[in-house]
Batch of 4 targets.
Target 1
Amino acid sequence: MLSTTARTTLGRSKERGSTDRNDLYDVLDTGLICHLGVVVNGHPMVVPTGYGRIGDTLYLHGSTGATSLRGGGESEVCVTVTHLDGIVLARSIFHHSVNYRSAIIYGRARPVTDPEERLAGLRAVSEQLAPGQWDYVRPPSRKELAATAVVALSLEEASVKIRRGAPKDEEEDYGLPVWAGVLPLVTSWGAPEPDPLLPEGIDPPVHILRRE
Amino acid sequence: MLSTTARTTLGRSKERGSTDRNDLYDVLDTGLICHLGVVVNGHPMVVPTGYGRIGDTLYLHGSTGATSLRGGGESEVCVTVTHLDGIVLARSIFHHSVNYRSAIIYGRARPVTDPEERLAGLRAVSEQLAPGQWDYVRPPSRKELAATAVVALSLEEASVKIRRGAPKDEEEDYGLPVWAGVLPLVTSWGAPEPDPLLPEGIDPPVHILRRE
């Protein structure tokens, strides 16, 4: 079950809320980037960044110089992952909507200092964006590791919203001579584009070619 | 030219920054949703939502009951729009990256009360997600308009970051027998899915069928 704190109890569109922890894992595990929200000098700041999940912990990484991770000790963050699945075209402007799956996680970002957890966290972030690459390419050097900040965020306080399916129109609008339905948004991988500096004879490995 | 306040002057990856206002318009005009950051009780909150642009003003809408827009008068917000274009697969884990185009806008959200500007703002938000629909379906009723909050955000304080092209690896890694390049992420529209309640004989109009 997902938590039901004041922040994660949905005020509106309750029917779109999910309290199934597997829905949370699913939204996170099928995503590529998140939007990380922090408060800097009292103002909100939202930056896109990578993430990875191990069990009920989310890991984020960044340059040690990045403002968004420079909270100094623990800092309150909000991490949002959104999949946009389609545009819901209703019979009235008011009922236009989108089909989506989104997760919002609130909590304190904990700087990860333990070397083993740091490496595991970085691996999770890397494999989320580029599965199979951690064991395929050159691993991080000591210097590269030192330049990378890793923070952890518990998935304790999270909410999931999902909207699927056809528009919901006003009763009296169903008779209008207007097409209604969903225009699906499809995301797919293109053909791998080799680095112009790649020597001839090196083909992309299966984990890149066959990525789902 | 884009502004160069402390918040929008890039600290890192300066070579990815753009100061061309047309890049800002381009990132915004080709996006579908943004991530809106606000501060609620001192904590960051990031929610996905629609938006629309008219000149140098961004419009957002929401239910009048939504926490994210309930700032009460003007409130500081951050709006981020991100396009993820591909995964940059380098010869080392450290230089893995993503190709992307993102815009971050900071400012005070101004509640829009003037009826004409409200309607124009709502039209912009609607046309961004579902172009052509405003003139095709039933327009908003007075009651529906009253239930919708519209806020405006100036594009004065904005930054744009763009990364394109091949990985940048360490000199000594170029000799590794490792494939490197970009795995492009492609977003496209699927075939329109009619509402099961749609009467027979109503076909999708051209602006839906031929959407780019």
Target 2
Amino acid sequence: MHKVVEHGTKSLITSRIKRPSLLSKVITDPNHLIPYFQNGQYIGWSGFAGTNYPKVTPIALADHVEKNSLQSKLKFNLFVGASTGPETEGRWAALDMIERRYPHQSDSSVRKGINTGNIKFADEHLSIYANDLLYGYYTLKKEKGDKRKLDIAIIEATEITEEGYIIPGASVGITPEILQMADKVIIEINTSLPSFKGVHDLVKHDPPPFTKPYQLTRVDDRIGVEAFPIDPEKILAIVESQLPDNTSDPAPEDEKSNAIAHHIVEFFKAEIEAGRMPKNLHPIQSGIGSIANAVIGGLSRGPFENINVWTEVIQDTFLDFFDNGKLNFASATSLRFSPSGFNRLFNNWDNYVNKMVLRNQAISNSAELIRRLGVIALNTPVEFDIYGHINSTCVDGSKMLNGIGGSGEFLRNSKLSIVHAPSTRPTKSDPHGISTVVPFASHIDHSEHDVDIYVTEQGLADVRGLDPIERAKVIIEKCAHPIYKPILKEYLETSTQICLKKGAAHEPHQLDKAFKFYTNLVEKGTMRFDKW
Amino acid sequence: MHKVVEHGTKSLITSRIKRPSLLSKVITDPNHLIPYFQNGQYIGWSGFAGTNYPKVTPIALADHVEKNSLQSKLKFNLFVGASTGPETEGRWAALDMIERRYPHQSDSSVRKGINTGNIKFADEHLSIYANDLLYGYYTLKKEKGDKRKLDIAIIEATEITEEGYIIPGASVGITPEILQMADKVIIEINTSLPSFKGVHDLVKHDPPPFTKPYQLTRVDDRIGVEAFPIDPEKILAIVESQLPDNTSDPAPEDEKSNAIAHHIVEFFKAEIEAGRMPKNLHPIQSGIGSIANAVIGGLSRGPFENINVWTEVIQDTFLDFFDNGKLNFASATSLRFSPSGFNRLFNNWDNYVNKMVLRNQAISNSAELIRRLGVIALNTPVEFDIYGHINSTCVDGSKMLNGIGGSGEFLRNSKLSIVHAPSTRPTKSDPHGISTVVPFASHIDHSEHDVDIYVTEQGLADVRGLDPIERAKVIIEKCAHPIYKPILKEYLETSTQICLKKGAAHEPHQLDKAFKFYTNLVEKGTMRFDKW
């Protein structure tokens, strides 16, 4: 059992800095860092899925802005692996401190900033983003300093080794990449956490033409190092943090998500039976949310043994999965436990840490590795259309939810790509006002070419090998809610008749009516209607 | 110089079969093969981009169908790497012999069959298709025989080695995969061609969990074998062919395509200057058509030396590129030369063959290798929208052109992804009736997350690091034709105002008007109009 360290004594941080020469970088008051920050800078943070993000420095900056009424006057271009916490980026957004924020978030204030035109945001495939950041594609428009560098990186760590190398905490994200490309680095050592030494496998990216194969063929292979090197001259300061990650409890399973999980487990059994999948399945990628949790629950209660996981985020449900002996090993870029989940981890440290590894998101989401390992991808989209095109990001075509995240990398490259969602969602006036299955998705992140299996609580549509019209029939039949089935069928049939006459019936549409579900929703508060 | 073999003597085929025991499989009349073919079978052909496809057997089958009025009674599910020739699959389509045809074609009769609902067709990323075919995803619905096998593969080869291994001709495509999974194989040895021994690098795919890294870090690395093994018991027959590939001359460069090429060459110079690209660029992927040819022409006249190519198809223009000493090495899955181009190759064989290699399309289009090599992708789409979503396949949303091909694999995974197209195309009544830049693409194969650079003869839009609204402004400004600029600007501005009011302005759209370009085209023969 790993001892959880005690709080509040000065010696805590020095015990985590094993390289004596770096002790001189320790500062006790983060306000001393404020002068280094200037309007318009390009800043990188550690953090992914709400863990291991910097807290002390961003909060000190937010306090500074609030105290001195610097709202909209001290703004940053902020680059993080994925989401962090409401007390940091959420507060920055509320204080109008964010000019630009890539490539993923899940905070209500940030989301509001994006959708009101106040925060420039673009979502990008997480692994490609990590590479492109290093190539200088996100810093092209920098007005001051080196166009290929971030001005300051702020990272949370749990230890600095004798070599002066960094050991992150509960996530990796783009920490290795921002350590490579930042001009200056601030390190927050979180002494409320144990050292995560040994949990990570950190890889340096050598841009083309120097990129080498990732020599990884199993989820538990290690191809990197456990601590990431950093040029000591880059280190601006080291500060202590005892602030916890601001995580919440996992979304509970419900009836619909359990029905979805049941369809998926039955499908897996049939695939094994048909010889297309090994008995322990292929490595599983699982998203976040109630359906993802239900699927993991379903798998852990199912007849499968020695399951491996290759995913972005390890969540509370995986602890049960480990405990019942069915989960063999899990690889991810983030541990996103609830506070009680983290306690479970820390109290049984030795029991869990040998069964998992945290990697750069450039590795966890790498097309190369997802393809090679033959991953089974499971993702929850906003909606999908009858031909299988998928919207993962923009509600009603325009409003950003969280960003594409790893959905594209997993859906495109997995051996088996599955999307799952409830068949309807409620509006104010109609408990089934929004259909997940639509004639033409209002935003397309993943095309018909990327997904094999569509699941709702209604059923499972296996579209492998089908042409678009066959696909549409199966998706409507198996996935659409009974309320929307006749409406969708009529669209497909009428579109097919019209397009056949024109000799243009590969993927039949009526572009004058394709978005009627959405216009009806705006006008009448529901997607359902009587007449096309 | 490689001697082109003479025609018409029986000894030609025996000289190409180096394994004596296989000589007993040679048959002289392909009509003897007809009884092996039954309605509903799953058939694989060699061939890619119109070269190295089987001819004698498909033509004998077509003659048989025509002679015996078996149209629509002898139909096949046909799987090829990409396109073949009009005298084979085109004739099969015209004779209603194709039930299903995956994943790419470029023949007018096949296209007509697809768009009139007579041929089931689905396009798929070419490398993923090769894998999924082996996994049994395209043969799931087979009614007879092993659901994980093709019934018969028909391949063109240029030699059988002493070990009994196959040496293909001018393309590889999915030949290795169909040799792995076919129940029976017919081999057509084309003695009108030289043996292509030494030109190929053929890789066997081991499905997960046995897949290994592709140990390739340079375009000229070899990771496979020069001849592909085959179980001799699978060989139904070996027949001689002297029919040439039915290729045409390359599309000529024109004024618009030269303007596009100029923008791209200037951009490359600036990228090198900024230190984001080596002086010899990164390996180039180039499509087919007049713009692709103009770009290759522009590069070969440009200031770049020692260029490498990592692409699908090597075309006539590459011969000039080799000849002027600027092209160092080219890797592809197909040599698609015109008849005169093939003569140039055969007459200077030793000069060219050491500078190129042909690979499985699973390798040429592999995400792993495209990412690792840092490829520069250059593709011509049907259209793209103001936010950067791309239609590569379905005209007006419904009518299949050729299929997605490798466009998705190259655009998603390349270090630098470029699409290029003329800003307008003519309709009957308007020389600028169709705009390439539209408000919302009528079909989306590649999303905003996949492409860095958009080019028309009007200019080049570099959207790296931009958010959707910034991207739209640049794409409209740089790429749209002056006729369409004000129309598109008004759409963007009005949509932004409306969506800002709703707090939904990440990617502003008006879904009731998003497809007006297409409805206007149907009603008035042009996409242009005065009033939104």
Target 3
Amino acid sequence: MGSLGSGCGNSRHFKPLDPEEFRAQAHQMVDFIADYYKQVETYPVLSQVQPGYLRACLPESAPYRPEPLDSILMDVRSCIMPGMTHWLSPSFFAFFPATVSTAAFLGEMLCTCFNSVGFTWLASPAATELEMVVMDWLARMLKLPKSFMFAGTGGGVIQNTTSESILVTLVAARDRAFDAIGIESLRKLVVYGSDQTHSTFTKTCKLAGIHPCNIRSIPTSFHTHFALSHVLLRKVVEADVAAGLVPLYVCATAGTTSTAAVDPIEQIADVANEYGMWLHVDAAYGGSACICPEFRHYLNGIERADSLSLSPHKWLLSYLDCCCLWVKEPGSLVRALSTDPEYLRNGPSRSGSVVDYKDWQVGTGRRFKSLRLWLVLRSYGVANLQGHIRSDVRMAGLFEGFVKSDRRFEVVAPRLFALVCFRVVPRRRRVGPGEADAMNRKLLEWVNSTGRVYMTHTVVGGVYVLRFAVGATLTEERHVVAAWNLIREGADSLLKNAHSLCT
Amino acid sequence: MGSLGSGCGNSRHFKPLDPEEFRAQAHQMVDFIADYYKQVETYPVLSQVQPGYLRACLPESAPYRPEPLDSILMDVRSCIMPGMTHWLSPSFFAFFPATVSTAAFLGEMLCTCFNSVGFTWLASPAATELEMVVMDWLARMLKLPKSFMFAGTGGGVIQNTTSESILVTLVAARDRAFDAIGIESLRKLVVYGSDQTHSTFTKTCKLAGIHPCNIRSIPTSFHTHFALSHVLLRKVVEADVAAGLVPLYVCATAGTTSTAAVDPIEQIADVANEYGMWLHVDAAYGGSACICPEFRHYLNGIERADSLSLSPHKWLLSYLDCCCLWVKEPGSLVRALSTDPEYLRNGPSRSGSVVDYKDWQVGTGRRFKSLRLWLVLRSYGVANLQGHIRSDVRMAGLFEGFVKSDRRFEVVAPRLFALVCFRVVPRRRRVGPGEADAMNRKLLEWVNSTGRVYMTHTVVGGVYVLRFAVGATLTEERHVVAAWNLIREGADSLLKNAHSLCT
């Protein structure tokens, strides 16, 4: 009575979690979702709606009386779906993919089911301990040194995003500097990234109170394949030190957002270690590939870093909000982030024998996040996950081959993983760079407007570049081939209209 | 082949999201979860395991080959369950509850299903627009002024936690101050809360670079029922101004963590407005009750605040990671938090006609978070949600009546919502306050050790207090009665052993 879908608002009998009603409706939702997965290929990848479309479909206020699930699902189909950009579409090649899997979905269901709040060990011992186990498992898969593992002297934690991983490690580094040279030194602390470091780096540094004038964005170029040059880094650091500033933190990237470039960790570690800086490695995208021996060299030097973050939601099938962060010295995180209110005090915390993850993150509350990753690792095993990475890389190689075989196109940056950066190159001499950029922009707009493929762009080295990121979970070779054919079709039409610009 | 549970690692045929396999296994998981909900009442509420218990149960490394779902579920039963503190148990009265519902679970399934990343409007128009609609719906339910609504001049966003809500508004306030008086003023900025403000406030202020000496924790007392005194606040602010400091931000709370006290928003707004401070209202717990007219007065004065946060996961049945934040001036958030990397640029963002939620939060990526709340509001309707609040308050009133009817106990702070703060009061004169605290601590330990109930404690006004927080979704009157009987049984035995301390 009065529960979900009954159409009755009698609160005396309102049961928001009746197990049998849950069972029936959750089964209904499972079928809805399985059908979505089956049909997702048929939807326009990039939504074609106009801003404000949804407000016009929905009432201004929440209903006073309950509405049945069937009406809601009808609205999901008619109002929500048209406004979706389908990240699960096998023809989604934009940004980096957000990968998914049955195992992770089941793990998320379990996490939702328990809804435990693991701020302290005691509040949910299994949640804390499984996260510790899983972080060590993944560390082993990546052949990280024991200095990053609970089985050694470090440890790991699941954050929601790379931004949070950077924020908490930056604050740990900052407070370590305060301990050494006083809190009044804040104004002097300098942080370093490249112009390819994720945009959240600058934002996060500002959040942490780093003076905007002290955030260095070191230029990269075609010459270094858009990787951070340790030579330039050293020069900038030396100049800062000479000016009386204090180098604090450097963020190296394994798989940049624009081109998936990899910064040379070993050489950057030389500079970082020499100047006592915290070295963080943001391997959000590229790190996952390092579970395969043939890619592991991209993390060479990691044993000299202070922290590493990697987002399995990008390439390890784990759904969103799963960014794994390892630190060498958990104590530095805890010193910066711990709180000790009376209402959370308990015996095990007091004994110092447990991890209280609230002291490893920004917030206090936290879900049982490790279940998803645990289910992925167990259900698929390392072998399948390696195979999954390799399959995406192979498909990207196929696409790269297509690009290279068509002389109207060029590959703009070396392909290290499953991202191909390319563009149309007008061959006529009198076509200026602005015109070439405009042509690529037009091609991209046309391709995306068909709804059959979604790609995005970037600008590197002053050049407008198309990004083709393989890796959506449902993508097969035929989707890559179809996307290439569509791109070629667009180029045909574009170049014909441009009076046969290519010779 | 090679997919979940097949026991085969042949990657050529590895399909991590086969719709029919998903369907079968997700149905299996639904039944597993429905059975858990049916049985949760029978489990010990507070886990009885010892630190490190899980590491001993699980292998050191992830498996190389896949394992079947049945084995994993068996381990959930035998390894994970014993380490759970069951937040869903109807006899969970600790902290504040983390409420759940069938509707929210279904919404979370849909959110997981789409796995869209709504950093910009274009990346997922429906995700952005539904969040805008739902935030306005909830604003109307709370009778917030239009200055907090998209339908007016403000707007709302779903954060994961109160910590993030405080962080982003604090940084917006800080950067607004930088604009007015220069970035070098950071050292002078002062923030204000009470000694009952959530512990995350201090942590968040430190994250944002506020000097620890400039974080004011104004003492409260029995006299003000542990609410922040605006008289004291004004005195402290005046002294800071006289000392050349700059008042920046004050955090008022509607429903403090220890006793659910409510700070007087109107009077605090007088001080905040006079000194140009940002006023944030943390209504994480108490705010939900304000959808009922009889509680709405606790938000009186909200029209003069700059921001308000409220966590429906605490009392509106929405599962974790759902903290609603409204701001009066979204532009101030966006100025502090926006990033504009080339790879996220797009027409709608450039046109300024859309909301890009990445500029309202710490991270870049974000899930389709509003689906959960949308399903809760529609499936239950305002009437049932009001009924749900009232039912919890009524049960807490019942418990309070039990306490008051037993002269060995006293209620320590006024009960405004569904939290009862109480303790055993030894009547014999020669029992000192330390001894009384020890007695209450013993009683709590005994009650929790039975596994039949889980409560927590706090210390306010120098006194050790037991907290009985009604509100777990499955709690019924009989669980409250049983909990009281258990507490009485504990007191009987405790007081008998203490040689009949009570007269």
Target 4
Amino acid sequence: MAIRYPNGKKFEKKRIPKTVKNDYKKDNSFSNRGMNFEDDIQTSNEFYRSQGLAVIHKKPTPLQIVNVHYPKRSAAVVTEAYFQKPSTTDFNGVYKGMYIDFEAKETKNKTSFPLKNFHAHQIEHMKAVLEQAGISFVLVHFRVHEEIYLVPGTFIVSWYESKENHRKSIPKIEIEENGFPVKTGYHPRIDYLASIDKWINGK
Amino acid sequence: MAIRYPNGKKFEKKRIPKTVKNDYKKDNSFSNRGMNFEDDIQTSNEFYRSQGLAVIHKKPTPLQIVNVHYPKRSAAVVTEAYFQKPSTTDFNGVYKGMYIDFEAKETKNKTSFPLKNFHAHQIEHMKAVLEQAGISFVLVHFRVHEEIYLVPGTFIVSWYESKENHRKSIPKIEIEENGFPVKTGYHPRIDYLASIDKWINGK
């Protein structure tokens, strides 16, 4: 399941400057290859929107604005701001009337998905969404295998909270068994809506 | 329908610095009185979340980050960023499985709600949400009357696109007839969920 990047430009959005989030990554091998998991999800979201299939957006990075400069005849410039921890997951929107809410996570780990990828408040958010009957999941990207899985929020939450497990990561085999593989391609690049359909309509 | 601000602090969140959006406002009378429509909606959202009634958040202000400084031993500082136009409405989330999507707008106008309050892309977003069977609306606050209405997205869109009307604003009487009044109080301050219930279950 290789991710291919043809040069077709039909759905290639205008490049916005990389957010600092990307710069934080210790391992840049993925972006060095001109690929970025989050960007690909956003491109897929644009495709879905353009086809009238779903309306799903990534939330902007929350910043605490401290100082703004208003030059005459020019746009306001934020001159001092700090990154804030997001209190929710990164992506949400609507698909056939259903509330869709998910987080995208990557791992270089070959055999398991480390739970340190989550903050407690993200798990709390997922639980709250599930209580409201929202569709909550995580898109997990195993970089080495170039495999993507849609993992239901219920599974993530129960693993995270399980006292018996007390593990710091979910074995990949568990994700294969409890998640749904996500096909990658040209348009959309990451077809997670198809995986939602499989999930909802039964495996 | 006066908006009262008792000093009870139970649901008073930590004051975050006012975003610049507020500073843009030509008329600051509302914030001068220590009141802010958007803040009150956010406080109401916190109340709803704390009670397990709904999970609805305001999206962060989108900023294009150009420069970031990384001082040693301190948090990263954004030293240059520009405000971007949001491509969606400000608030979204989930309520009893339903996707909720809305914008909050204020007017000082006594007899009508000016449509210049909307950008074309916001209307497009509302249409896209409606096509996905999402719950789309606008909370309109008439400052002078201190009245708030939940106005269904379908009504806003049809008025905006109507060639016959070709008006630049919606008369208040039309909003009273086609919208749903929103009660204000202590907790929640702006009880728009009750208005959604009335809307969905029939007037």
